[in-house]
Amino acid sequence: xxxxxxxxxxxxxxxxxxxxxxxxxxxxxxxxxxxxxxxxxxxxxxxxxxxxxxxxxxxxxxxxxxxxxxxxxxxxxxxxxxxxxxxxxxxxxxxxxxxxxxxxxxxxxxxxxxxxxxxxxxxxxxxxxxxxxxxxxxxxxxxxxxxxxxxxxxxxxxxxxxxxxxxxxxxxxxxxxxxxxxxxxxx
Amino acid sequence: xxxxxxxxxxxxxxxxxxxxxxxxxxxxxxxxxxxxxxxxxxxxxxxxxxxxxxxxxxxxxxxxxxxxxxxxxxxxxxxxxxxxxxxxxxxxxxxxxxxxxxxxxxxxxxxxxxxxxxxxxxxxxxxxxxxxxxxxxxxxxxxxxxxxxxxxxxxxxxxxxxxxxxxxxxxxxxxxxxxxxxxxxxxxxxxxxxxxxxxxxxxxxxxxxxxxxxxxxxxxxxxxxxxxxxxxxxxxxxxxxxxxxxxxxxxxxxxxxxxxxxxxxxxxxxxxxxxxxxxxxxxxxxxxxxxxx
Lengths: 187, 293
What we know:
The complex is a heterodimer.
Chain A: H1 2-30, E1 45-46, E2 49-50, H2 66-69, E3 109-111, E4 117-119, H3 124-127, H4 132-140, E5 147-148, E6 154-155, H5 159-162
Antiparallel strand pairs in A: 1-2, 3-4, 5-6
Chain B: H1 2-9, H2 13-32, H3 42-60, E1 65-67, E2 77-82, H4 91-99, E3 112-117, E4 141-146, H5 155-159, E5 165-167, E6 173-175, H6 185-189, E7 196-197, E8 212-214, E9 226-227, H7 233-236, H8 243-247, E10 253-257, H9 264-271, E11 273-275, E12 287-291
Parallel strand pairs in B: 1-8, 2-12
Antiparallel strand pairs in B: 2-10, 3-4, 5-6, 7-9, 11-12
């Protein structure tokens, strides 16, 4: 099962890379997006070696978004959506909506506040625009979970692997059973 | 004068000599016999470990490996736990039980999660380890998981009458289960309640045995010995994170090398608000609690 998942992810990753390459070329032809400042390397690059990062947790069959959106004319007016009604935004919803993070011109990308286009696997830069101190902690390994080796190869998680970006607060969860109180001698 | 006194007390020179010889022989016999794991020669340890592997493999019906890996040079382990993140779900407790082959019945758990009142702060008198609500976190409560604090100035190792517990070079406080006589002085000395005693015969179902063992860590214990957290010595000395770090759903647990200036642990100590439990006792724990927010 685990192997199957890995293979699926690998195939997905290849498909996404191939697809986004094409789309990037197309996007470049229609409207040039401002460049992203990449002077700070991603935290999962160490000594030129890429560490393991799981792919963003897309719902089944939802990506690439352009598969549907290519034939739809972007409507930039803020409204209640008739599609994607399974997504409930509870993340400063009074001030923001879909297109504040998702790119209207190229649906397979996000965008920063400055308009720079951002692939989904770098979404932490988008989160870090508001949650700067969390991004800083995450980069050094203090915020979020790491697995693997304390002195070597680590697996990082993206913000969205733990926090649903549309409802980032953690849901309460049932605790595991309490320890048994010590036994008392029966008199 | 001395001879006269001896005669008066009824011990002859011959008797004294034979008793002294017997005592010397006894001392010599002890020195040649079993030795504690900290001063055992490498080849003898390897042989003892191979014997353990054979015994456990036969007992549990699977290939068991028992490591005898020593401390890495330049490494002192330390742990940090973010109490602003912990939600008290006890996932760590059960990951620890599975990883470290604790007895299922009678129940032995190395990690104890204390639920505390936010308005009172850290107060052990008021702490509740038996909380069982529908969901956690509860309003107005925060959670402090406790386990062995791996003190630099460990009271438990000082009171052991047989020298069965000591601090390794990488800072891990370990127990030699074959030298523990079960007097439980160490449990009385530990201010954190981190040591646990096998009151009954430990039960460990074969299908739940973790076959990746260490001679000073998670090899099966016998009745009548004390056990406790070893920072997952079988994992940490192989470079891996402890089981509780990897299972924590909120990423509250951090682990690393205290001597590495680029480690997560050092970043936390240098940049976060850090506290030690019962700092006034001067036990100097290597287990740091911090506020990540």
